[in-house]
Structure of Beta-lactamase:
Amino acid sequence: MKELQKKIEATLAAYRGRWGMVILNHSSGQHFTINPDMVFPAASMIKIPIMYEAMRQAAAGRIDLEQLLIVKDELRVDGAGILKELRPGISMTIRELVTLMIILSDNTATNMLIDLLSMSAINQTMERLGLKSTVLRRQMMDFAAAAAGQENKTSSADIIRLLTIIYDHSHLPADYGKLMIDILSRQQVRDKLPFFLPEEIVIAHKTGTLPGVEHDGGILFLPGGPYIICIMTADLPANVEGLQLVAALGKVIYEHFGLAQIN
């Protein structure tokens, strides 16, 4: 990984801010890290733990993924997503809410799932899984809570651990792990890690954005992989720099691993 390290360090030299990242070759166990335990505002990366808890409760028989929930007008919040644009009173299954939360980062769907699953259950599960820095403290778009210090937190090491657990089906029946990967692979927000990748390359991932914060993490499926990747950035002078940085790193990673397999 020394050659990859040089390429990454050269890319980072052109940017300002702070970052943490982990790149793991799941097949070989080789990995590259920079500040893996550095804690960041989670932004929408917290939606991966919420998805996992939905699957855990479904596997335990506590919820039914096909259960319908009503999207009441008072539940709709601004920001990312589509539910705020649809008619009040529309019904969605829990599976559909999870899907919208991931592929469109829908904030209304996210808050409905937090209410259903409970914040404490989500946090307890993440603690049991060994995620040391991940905590859900507030719902989406609750900026008053964030300003009061109740920000959602995570680290690149935690996200890598959770994605590895999902991929390995090590804690839930395989069908639930496969469903989570399928949902992540249908991600519609592709302006970071996959931005420069060929369309045929599959990456099951989730992004996160806040002012001064840009994250992306997921599973990149290549012949020598899969590669489980998480890149987190914060204290950015402008978000566009974070977008450019994570996209550039995605290109570096793909060219290092993907083209090496071809050549």
